[in-house]
Design goal:
This protein has about 80 residues and is an all-alpha fold. The protein has 1 helix and no strands.
Length: about 80
């Protein structure tokens, strides 16, 4: 009456092959992503400039072009 447990049928073999194929594809994709991440990091690090070491008391240039104050204009600020 019911299905025999433990016996493999043609459809279950096809399913197992499908699952095996899917797992292989996932592994290939994971490896490709890892390689891509390494390559992207390498390119990013090559473009990034090294940061200048500063000590307390060093003089620095501060650009205030985008610095907001409470004054309506530079002319009206205190001197």
């Amino acid at each position: 009456m019911g299905q025999d447990i433990g016996k493999t049928t043609d459809s279950s073999l096809g399913t197992e092959e499908f699952l095996k194929t899917i797992k292989e594809i996932r592994n290939e994709v994971a490896e490709a992503l890892k390689k891509t991440n390494v390559m992207m990091k390498k390119k990013w690090d090559a473009k990034k400039k090294s940061e200048i070491e500063r000590k307390k008391g060093d003089l620095v240039w501060v650009d205030v072009a985008h610095y907001n104050t409470d004054q309506p204009s530079k002319k009206l600020s205190t001197k």
